[in-house]
Amino acid sequence: MKNIFEHFEKKLILKNRLFLKNGYPRLPNTVIGTKLILNGDNVLNDFINSANTIFKDFNSQTSVLIKINLNSAYNYPASTSIEMLETVIKALISQGVKKICIGDCSGLVHLPTRKVMRKKELFPLKKRYGVKLIVFDYGKWISVPIKGKYFKNIILSDSVYKYDKIINLSNLKSHVRSIFSFSTKLLVGFMHPCQRYELHNDHIEERIAELSLAIKPDITIIDARKIFIDGGPDAGVKASANTIIVDTNLLEADICAYNLLYLLKKQSFSKVL
Prior knowledge:
By secondary structure, the protein is an alpha/beta fold. The chain has a single domain (2-272), classed as 3-Layer(aba) Sandwich (Rossmann fold), CATH 3.40.50. The protein contains ten helices and eleven strands.
């Protein structure tokens, strides 16, 4: 009975285009650029100790949306690490930030998102830190015109316009369809589920790149403590990198992540030989 209900719920989510309006690209609201690569066994503590640098233009008046990776509920690095998410929350609180929201819209196979949140045991974070949890499944959607080759418009959750800052908290992993999945790929979670069918039809790498014409986060954080060097996005060959990449530039964050993935894949291949 539960599965039947979730099947119909998924259909409703795919059809939901309530109050679809025309919008505009959501571009960064960050004044001061930040680039930081943290390495080592104590990288989470180092992240918190670097809060003044990472979140230097955040304060008690700043509202923050943390976009996480809930493509599935499979264990990190397939989805967001709760340990990493708590580290980011603690770092924001240390800067006086009071309005923190955590949100996403899961992959098509795993909808509805609330089910994935429950499996990931995210709801206790509300009581523990006073944060808000939202799913984009049932919200309003905005059609953003872009000058892309493959997309002429991107349908985004209207949540992207409701917060002063957006933090893109992504993982580092290979991907069987798009070769790799870093911070730009994570933007798919802002996209209307129905439009994702078009995304996966053809030219997936190019279509993913075009998402950045509609939305860019203020800060990208790539949790590369553990990564998939093969397979992905839900399962793959794991490797340890003990690295966290922080950048206000989405593209440069992904370039750094790609170089790290390439290095670890090369090292793994050399060991096999």
